[in-house]
Amino acid sequence: MAIDGPAGSGKSTVGWWLARRLGYHYLDTGAMYRAAAWKLHRSGIPTADGTGLSEAMNAMEIDLCDEPTGLRVLVDGEDVTAEIRSPRMAMLASQYSALPAVRARLTQLQRAWKGAEGVVAEGRDTTTVVFPDAELKVFLDATPEERARRRLAEIEARGTGVDGPTVRQEIEDRDRADATRALAPLARASGALYIDTTGLPVEDVVERLAKEVERLCSTGS
Ligand code: DC
Fold first, then answer.
1. Which of 13, 36, 86, 209 is 20–30 Å from 72 (CA)?
2. Is the pLDDT assigned to residue 156 strictly greater than 90?
3. For strand 119-123 and strand 2-4, is the pairing parallel, antiparallel, or unpaired?
C-alpha cells in the first residue's frame, strides 16, 4: 500500500506504525531522496550534468535498515541517519528530487525494494508514479499550522534550535516546489483515500488504515 502527502502530514509516523501493525516492510522514499541528495551534494556534481548524475546514481548504494528503534539509513556504507534529517537536507532533497536522473534511479529501486510485496511505501509520488496499482492508496494531509508544529517538535526533539516561523516557511517553500515540479509532483491520486490527520491520534489513523487493508485483502478487491 502507498501513502503520499505534504511535509508534516503524518506519513512517516503512520507508515512506520502501520507497517508494524500489518507485518509489512516500511519504505520511506523521502529518506532515499535525502540520502541521494546528501551524497550528490557532497560529490559536487553540477545539477545540469545529467550524465554525471546518472552515473553517480547508478553507482550509489542506499540501504534502509528497518530497526525496532527506527529507520537507519546508509549511503555507500556510511550511516547518514541523523544528518539527512536537518531542514537544510530536506531542502536539498527537494531540489535534487526534481532532476530526471535522480527520480529515474530511485523509482527503479523503490519498485524493486523487498520484491514490492507487503510494503507500506510513503512519499510524494508513491500513489501516482511508483505504485499506481497499490492495493490501497492514501493521501494524508493536515493544516499548515499543525504540520509546522509537528515538524518543529521533531527538530526540537533532536536538540537542534530553530524558530517556528522559519520552520513554517521551510515547509511552505518545499511543498510548493514538490507540488509544482514537472516530474512526479505531489498530487492526490485518483481513488486515493483522503484523511486530514489534524488533531487525530496516530493510533486512530493507523487502525483505520490497517482495517482498510485487511478488508481489501479479505475481499480480494
Ligand atoms: O518525505 P521527506 O520530507 O523526507 O522528503 C524529502 C524530499 O524528498 C521532499 O521534499 C521531496 C522529495 N521526495 C520526492 O520527491 N518524492 C518522494 N516520493 C519522496 C520525497
1. 209
2. no
3. parallel
- Regarding the beta carbon of 7 and ligand 1, being less than 6 Å apart is answered yes
Q: List the alpha helices (DSSP H) in 9-86.
A: 11-22, 29-43, 50-59
220 falls within a domain = no
First to last CA, the chain: 13
- Phi and psi at 65, nearest 5°, equal -105, 110
Tell me which residue has its CA closest to atom 2 in ligand 1. 30
User: Could you tell me the distance, in angstroms and rounded to a whole number, from the CA of residue 109 to the centre of ligand 1?
Assistant: 15
Q: Which domain holds residue 38?
A: 2-214
CA–CA distances in Å: residue 112 to residues 107, 115, 117, 121, 160? 9, 5, 9, 12, 35
CB 96 near ligand 1, within 6 Å: no
Which CATH number covers residue 150?
A: 3.40.50.300
Protein residue closest via CA to atom 12 of ligand 1: 94
Ligand 1: distance of its center to the CA of 214 in Å?
Answer: 28
How many domains in the chain? Answer: 1
| Predicted model pTM | 0.96
Residue 208 burial by Cβ neighbours in a 10 Å radius (0-12, 13-18, 19+) = middle
Is 152's pLDDT higher than 70?
yes
pLDDT greater than 80 at residue 221: no
Any domain includes 219: no
The pLDDT tens digits of the residues spanning 37-87 come to 999 999 999 999 999 999 999 999 999 998 888 899 999 999 999 999 988
205 belongs to a structural domain? yes
